[in-house]
Amino acid sequence: MDMTDATDELVRQVSGIPQELGAGACFGTPVEKNGHTLIPVARVSFGYGLGFGGGTSSSADTIGDDPAKEEGGSGGGGGGGGSSTPVAIIDISDRGVTIEPIEDKTRLAMAGIMMIAWNVFWVTLTVRTFAHQHAKGRRGKAD
């Protein structure tokens, strides 16, 4: 199989992914129990990338090699990944429809830690800058 055929096949396979990631990827199979219909809801994300190369080069650019020698180039690659995170449960019953969010406590804790780290960084940088400017000003007056 040459590079063009491989590229076309890979693009053909990957191009169908967005159509497959419809509402069914976010909403799970409904479960009925005790007069309630529960529908799980998830945040779904997916990404992919492709890379290819090609071409030929002459060895005349390298010192000591035979300039008549030709080398062929090639390349290729691809990858993808995805994730799914539960976010809520939809509860349908005789009393109505309720949406119960699922809190990701780890995500909340990490957001708090990152906010604290960001504030510590800026306070430290500000104090350091003022101290540096103050020391610079004192040196200038001593001269």
The mean pLDDT is: 80
Overall tally of structural domains: 2
Query: What's the story with the biggest beta sheet?
Result: 4 strands, antiparallel
Tell me the series of helices and strands, N- to C-terminal: HHHEEEEEEH
| Structure annotation, total helices | 4
Name the structural class. Answer: alpha+beta
Q: What is the end-to-end distance?
A: 78 Å
Radius of gyration: 30 Å
Unreliable stretches covering 5 or more consecutive residues:
none
What is the helical fraction, as a range of percent? Answer: 40-55%
Shape: flat
Give the strand line-up of the largest sheet: 1-2-5-6
How many β strands by DSSP? Answer: 6
Strand residue content: 25-35%
Provide key terms for this protein.
alpha+beta, 143 residues, 41% helix, 32% strand
Give an account of the 3D structure:
The structure is a single chain. The chain has 143 residues and is an alpha+beta fold. It folds into two domains: 100 residues, no CATH class; 41 residues. Helix content is 41%, strand content 32%. The strands form two sheets. The protein has a four-stranded antiparallel β-sheet, with no helix packed on it. A two-stranded antiparallel ribbon has the order 3-4. The protein is flat, with a radius of gyration of 30 Å. The protein starts with a helix and ends with a helix.
Give the SSE layout.
Elements: H1 3-15, H2 17-20, H3 23-26, E1 31-33, E2 36-50, E3 56-58, E4 70-72, E5 78-93, E6 96-101, H4 105-142
Antiparallel strand pairs: 1-2, 2-5, 3-4, 5-6
